[in-house]
């Protein structure tokens, strides 16, 4: 096909328009050159032609938008991101059914954010037409992202995610006020600011005229957020129109890196200008005589501000305010004096780090009167919401547990009653899962190529001061060496590394920060980086660690072929870090005058420093260029611990250099030691389960009703460490999960009590012996591994009546704090209703491990290694047969899984499937005997996963009992 054809097809794939038959308009454009016209087969050939880059780019972008669309009438009854939606799109484009599969193969569905939402009390308003009519600030923000080298796909996904949020807000022009409240769940250091910046841009384009961004509780974070919004959204013209010159000394301002709008909003009536009520140097102050700054302009005084005639020409006010009682009180006081009627002002409140300080932590049972009592900051937020009837509240957090535990009956609280949006994990993001091996590799099999732990994690196990100094030097050497590697890469053409930082986080106490800072200052002087004596030490570290990991994880980057290539950059890195007053900067709540050191300002200058601190270096603050982390602090709340993971984030051009030095035996109460690496792994798994639950129950059922609403989310929050609660005790709202059934989807039951004397293991084995006696066949089953490669495994199998399986699992004992009851209720209900008659039970046989003789049992059985989590961190085991679950889900009728021909042959409509796994669990001194056999049943654990028949619960169902006002009703989420 010619370029003329490619251009004609691409023009029919315009941004923001619905899918329509593409053949007729293309032939109309090509009438002169192709008088006989193209066929639909020709159009499909163009779509699939790799050389038609413009067409493929445009079609990929449009399919992404159309797959996600949720308000346009053309979608019919199809659900976003579903196969039915894609088929609907192809039909509207005029593509025949026999072309759909090939189109899917070339243009796979990308997925999108997960949404849990209540039904909205209005018709869809944020349509593509509305978006096209008012998009000035969103288009400007997209240009900023493109200039930052965001690719089209990443910007497109942000477009979808932000639209998903904005369309769940109330129409700012609607006659009746409505407050929509939602929560956006991201990942720590994963770009949540980019998302809420996009939401703010679209919201002000849509008509919101007062934007209040609540940041964390410290000024350093508020200032960072203000600058980001000013630089990427507010823009130079709007900033210059004010009276403040807070960026006079800012390097990016001087270099012209702040957004320059295509049209000056201050010189046209067609585009609203943005007026800043706060600056990068000043939090909110009482406006006093400047109160007119909050007086909104109107064209027609006979109409309210929210009428479109007045709303769109009116300028925007934006305030970035930290969650400080004094600042919020000043804002509340000024709002009460605003000349414009408050119930006419469409306002948007963005609450960054929404689980910090915003929620009400007063126990309702302890309130002295029937009137709700509030903590100070929550009280101010509630008052703002009470004053601004058109205010929309959106909380942003990576640790949402406190927010979903808020009392949903508190009408002016921050409970996300309307929606929860769980953002996708960004592709280049380096998060919790990237530092752990969640697929349970055997330690002997781990290499830097296949093990995140081997690649990025270094253990701190010091038992004395001498050992501690040696570990600190190890981390410090790594900091200098990675700085040298960055400079080497710059010399080979890499983009300059403006920032290079090391974070030391050992304590929340300021006095201890001083001591740690002095330790590193002294170490810096004695390390000899400016002398030849350090080179042999650094060469050994490079050869044994960084050269190996970079070869495995950073082969596409410029890497030195020998240490000699690095030597000249060692001194240069040392000089960069030594510049200024000291190589160390203490970052905490103490007054700056208390320290003789450089200020921490990532905006004004490049920072190559060692940062020592606590709270100020967590909770939303981005540590730019963070490469080496030295972490040994313990805390008892999962959300607090996760927020300390500043080593999460985007690491362009140096991902392979990142190292986490973490305490494996950190002292705690009563002399107990705590392994912080395993603690992080447990909460990474808990967070993954929380997100998985949101995914399972997002969307609507066949009646068009939500499966679950935000009120139903609290029971989905997991806690697997006895000492590590999801959030502070005073933030947890009570609810009970009483029923959990998902047809065709497996669940692993690994949450067993500590081993003790092994008697529980013995009883569990006795419980499943009736199942083992039924395994009279053997065969091969398929599964797809993590690299999407189809593989097989061999298993013995048999068919067991469902009531026999129920009797077996009823004999199992479970860890404290975990309840099998909701699963049992679904299991017994399916049996009683006739939807579950039997189970196909599988016992996989590993290819590399011979079966072992079992004392008192007539045949050898396969015993595998699974990690039992230490009692103080996580009871139970890390998994069962993770990869082999494809087979039981296929047998149970899942339309998404393929366990091979045998799995298909075993499928029956009323058949579930179960996998048995026996995991090594010997007494500590008998590990060798347990591996070789004969083995006692006390020395291995019986684990299982099962899937109910898909037909028993095709849509999934969970049920809750809410502990509230004496009611014991079960709320079914069908």
User: What's the gyration radius in Å?
Assistant: 30 Å
**Major pleated sheet:** 8 strands, mixed
Helical stretch tally: 30
Mean model confidence by pLDDT: 85
Structural class category: alpha/beta
Give start-end ranges of low-pLDDT stretches. Answer: 363-373, 591-595, 719-723, 729-735, 960-974
* Helical content (DSSP H or I, runs of 4+): 25-40%
Percentage beta strand: 5-15%
Strand order of the largest sheet: 1-8-2-7-6-3-5-4
Number of strands: 27
| Shape estimate | globular
From the N-terminal CA to the C-terminal CA, the straight-line distance is 51 Å
Please give a handful of descriptors for the protein shown:
974 residues; alpha/beta; six-stranded parallel beta sheet; 30 helices; 27 strands; Put_endonuclease_Z1-dom; P-loop_NTPase
Which helices and strands, and how do they pair?
Layout lengths: L2 H9 L11 H7 L10 H9 L4 H16 L14 H11 L6 H7 L7 E4 L10 H6 L2 H12 L4 H15 L14 E5 L6 H15 L3 E6 L3 H16 L1 H5 L10 H4 L19 E3 L31 H4 L4 E7 L2 H11 L11 E6 L23 H12 L3 E7 L3 H4 L14 E4 L6 E2 L21 H5 E4 L4 H27 L8 E6 L4 H17 L8 H19 L13 H12 L5 E4 L20 E6 L12 E6 L6 H6 L5 E2 L8 E5 L2 E2 L5 E2 L1 H21 L39 E6 L4 E4 L9 H14 L4 E8 L5 E12 H8 L11 H12 L5 E8 L39 H7 L9 H6 L4 E10 L6 H6 L7 E8 L9 E5 L8 E4 L1
Parallel strand pairs: 2-7, 2-8, 3-5, 3-6, 4-5, 6-7, 10-16, 11-13, 11-14, 12-13, 14-16, 23-24
Antiparallel strand pairs: 1-8, 9-15, 17-18, 19-26, 20-25, 21-22, 22-23, 24-25, 26-27
Helix pairs in contact: 1-4, 4-9, 8-10, 9-10, 15-16, 19-20, 19-21, 19-22, 25-26
